[in-house]
Amino acid sequence: MKNTSIPATDSEGQRARWRDDPVDFIQTALRDPENGEPFKLYREQVTFLRRAFERTKDGRMRHTELVFSAPKKSGKTAL
Fold first, then answer.
1. d(CA 65, CA 17)
2. 34-50 per-position pLDDT tens digit
3. Predicted pLDDT at 69
4. Potential cystine with 74: which of 1, 14, 54, 70 (Cβ 3.0-4.6 Å)?
């Protein structure tokens, strides 16, 4: 079985960066359980995730509900 966990070199600074940029977290820390490789997001997924996790000036999530829609075989399951 391949290692799919977050790398042991994690630090507070890295976690803070990942909180601010979930795309970086997905592409850096997460691994595809089928092949052990880092996830590679499509441009549309990156755009969606960056907008989905935007915060207001007081730190709250800007959006309370989100819907991601795409055709079959376009990477929705991994997202």
1. 23
2. 888 998 888 988 999 99
3. 82
4. 70
Cα dihedral 16, 7, 36, 38, rounded to 10, equals 30
Rounded to the nearest angstrom, the gap between the alpha carbon of residue 28 and the centroid of all alpha carbons in its chain is 9
7 has a pLDDT exceeding 80: no
- Cα–Cα distance list, 3 to 6, 30, 72 (Å): 9, 10, 28
- Tokens 């055709």 belong to 71
74 Cβ neighbours under 8 A, 6+ residues apart: 42
How many Cα atoms are found within 13 Å in the side-chain-facing hemisphere of 24?
8
Secondary structure (3-state) at 48: helix
